[in-house]
């Protein structure tokens, strides 16, 4: 079922291209592992099992990692009311609503499709935002679900996760067991390590390029759905500023899930790192929302959400 969120052809093209390139990389990666390990059954079984687990249980994995829990309407009536209203406007299935007991103000959406999706907000976000700002953030997250880019990011990130795990395994195997292996085994492990590192680096760059664009697409879709881009701009400014004041040690756990967050769990605005960031800069996002605000005839000043 097509939602009323604005379709984004450029996002669709980018998602398709990213999946195609990662698919080629995936095939080459598996072929290289089979050639190095000389056991296609083992490689296919392990890789296949990990892919199914990540895709099928991605929502549970993210919820567990971020201490999220499903909440019913009786516990958070205002939160449910906003999600209900937005889903009715967007004509899309209502996702599971969850809350994470974290002071870091943020939100994320996860799930393999719109019928099996979760939208989670932190208690830190709920405490800080005004109703119109919260509506903008939730509309942003729901647009990720409607555009299906949450599922694409989940699938796309699988290869990087797998390659990263293999790099760690091969590295620690060399460190702790290198002296007990013959030269042939050491060469195989070095080959696996090299291929995995290359695959991880390529997939890392592809995923981050897609992630930055999808955040801008979600901002656009949310602004048009709610008709109040200034409220979303206000939420962005407020959340980014508050995250910058949270101790770095409290952000480290969350940073592994930056690609799924409304704003990245980092205490500084990226410089050269913006090319490796999961999100566009705050200035880029606010500039885009300002343009949309002008198009809609709304006051562009953040915070004047009505």
TrEMBL record:
Top-level lineage group: Bacteria
GO terms for biological process, alphabetical: proteolysis
Localization terms from the record: Cell membrane
Membrane topology, as annotated: Multi-pass membrane protein
InterPro entries per record: HtpX_protease, Pept_M48_protease_HtpX, Peptidase_M48
Enzyme class: hydrolase
Residues holding Zn(2+): 140, 144, 215
UniProt-listed Enzyme Commission number(s): 3.4.24.-
Necessary cofactors: Zn(2+)
Domain (Peptidase M48) ranges: 77-290
UniProt similarity note: Belongs to the peptidase M48B family.
The protein's name in its UniProt record: Protease HtpX homolog
The species this protein was found in: Streptomyces filipinensis
């Amino acid at each position: 079922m097509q939602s009323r969120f604005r379709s984004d052809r450029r996002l669709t093209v980018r998602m398709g291209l990213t999946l195609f390139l990662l698919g080629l990389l995936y095939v080459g990666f598996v072929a290289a592992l089979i050639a190095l390990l000389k056991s296609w059954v083992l490689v296919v079984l392990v890789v296949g099992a990990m892919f199914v687990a990540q895709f099928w249980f991605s929502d549970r994995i993210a919820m567990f990692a971020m201490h999220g829990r499903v909440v019913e309407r009786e516990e958070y009536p205002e939160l449910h009311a906003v999600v209900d209203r937005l889903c009715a406007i967007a004509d899309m299935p209502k996702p599971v609503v969850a809350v994470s007991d974290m002071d870091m103000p943020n939100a994320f959406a996860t799930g393999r499709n719109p019928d099996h999706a979760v939208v989670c907000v932190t208690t830190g976000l709920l405490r800080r935002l005004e109703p119109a700002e919260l509506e903008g953030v939730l509309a942003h997250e729901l647009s990720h679900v409607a555009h299906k880019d949450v599922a694409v990011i989940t699938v796309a990130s699988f290869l990087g996760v797998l390659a990263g795990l293999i790099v760690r395994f091969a590295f620690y195997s060399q460190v702790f067991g290198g002296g007990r292996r013959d030269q042939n085994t050491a060469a195989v492990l070095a080959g696996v390590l090299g291929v995995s590192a290359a695959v991880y680096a390529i997939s890392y760059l592809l995923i981050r390029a897609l992630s930055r664009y999808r955040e801008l697409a979600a901002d656009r879709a949310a602004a048009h759905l709610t008709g109040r881009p200034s409220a979303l701009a206000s939420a962005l400014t407020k959340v980014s500023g508050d995250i910058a004041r949270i101790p770095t040690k409290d952000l480290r756990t969350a940073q592994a899930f930056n690609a799924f967050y409304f704003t990245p769990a980092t205490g500084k605005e990226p410089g050269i790192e913006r090319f490796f960031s999961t999100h566009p800069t705050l200035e880029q996002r606010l500039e885009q929302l300002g343009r949309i605000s002008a198009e809609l005839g709304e006051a562009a000043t953040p915070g004047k959400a009505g």
